[in-house]
């Protein structure tokens, strides 16, 4: 309970778009814990990572009580919600529930994770949720586990500058075992570029590998999900490679003084 003060405000976004069933389930879960504002892209924005829109105008539209669509990316949605639409700062941000995994290197491309990371940058505790399925993506089944994780986060908190990336496998992957803290695994897609010809003879391309290779180590998000664990991976907005920085003394030091051409001619 929060006493006599205002109820906590929870911002919900995604990258699958305002009409996604996963978004509706996540908003319903959020309503168990406070007031909810949904600001999501007007169309699917999968794979846009943490992109923000700088060269085109954005348009927001009210689509229901406490619900807005935006003609932008998930990161745009969070930025505009926090700095323009909402009259107070959210206490928590939830992104998803994504239709499909965000494991390993997926986090570099994911709009779901990008939206959550923008929340972290805006100093809001943030969680990205993804549902992993070999079938029909049972968001209602996943809701109980999403609710459990939200409750735990509200009780325990999230460290500053950390985004939680949560992947929940459904029973088509493996029997559910619970949640496990994990590291990012190695997950690779085949490098497919499919070239086709349009009706006017021009070439167009489809990107996206259909064959996936990933590690099975139990401490990785990939391995944990494959074994039936909900993988909870802490991500940071700090991209600095500290180990590499400690080995880069060769960069330091003054630039060599360049000898003018006139001096070179005098002293060949």
Descriptors:
two-stranded antiparallel sheet; globular; alpha/beta; nine-stranded mixed β-sheet; 268 residues; Stationary-phase Survival Protein Sure Homolog, Chain: A
- Helix tally? 8
Principal-axes shape call? globular
Strand content: 25-35%
Identify the CATH homologous superfamily.
Survival protein SurE-like phosphatase/nucleotidase
Query: Gap between N and C termini, in Å?
Result: 82 Å
Portion in helices: 25-40%
- Secondary-structure element series: EHEEEHEHHEHEEEEEEHEHH
**Could you report the average pLDDT, rounded to the nearest whole number?**
91
Strand order of the largest sheet: 3-4-2-1-5-6-7-13-8
What is the total domain count?
1
Beta strand count: 13
CATH 2nd-level architecture: 3-Layer(aba) Sandwich
């Amino acid at each position: 309970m929060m006493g006599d003060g205002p109820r906590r405000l929870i911002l919900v976004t995604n990258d699958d778009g305002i009409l996604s069933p996963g978004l509706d389930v996540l908003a319903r879960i959020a309503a168990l814990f406070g007031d909810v504002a949904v600001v999501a892209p007007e169309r699917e924005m999968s794979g846009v990572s943490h992109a923000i829109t700088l060269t085109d105008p954005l348009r927001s539209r009210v689509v229901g009580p406490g619900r807005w669509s935006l003609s932008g990316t998930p990161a745009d949605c969070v930025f505009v919600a926090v700095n323009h639409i909402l009259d107070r700062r959210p206490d928590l941000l939830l992104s998803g529930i994504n239709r499909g995994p965000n494991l390993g290197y997926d986090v570099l491309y994911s709009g779901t994770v990008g939206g959550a990371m923008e929340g972290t940058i805006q100093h809001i505790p943030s969680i990205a949720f993804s549902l992993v399925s070999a079938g029909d993506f049972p968001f209602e089944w996943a809701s109980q586990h999403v609710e459990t994780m939200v409750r735990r986060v509200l009780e325990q908190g999230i460290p500053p500058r950390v985004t939680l990336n949560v992947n929940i496998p459904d029973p088509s992957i493996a029997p559910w075992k619970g949640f496990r803290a994990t590291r990012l695994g190695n997950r690779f897609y085949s490098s497919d570029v499919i070239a086709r010809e349009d009706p006017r003879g021009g070439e167009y391309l489809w990107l996206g590998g259909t064959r996936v290779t990933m590690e099975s180590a139990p401490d990785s998000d990939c391995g944990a999900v494959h074994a039936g664990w909900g993988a909870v991976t802490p991500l940071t907005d700090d991209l600095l490679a500290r180990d590499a920085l400690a080995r880069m003394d060769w960069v330091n030091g003054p630039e060599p003084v360049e000898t003018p051409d006139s001096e070179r001619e005098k002293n060949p």
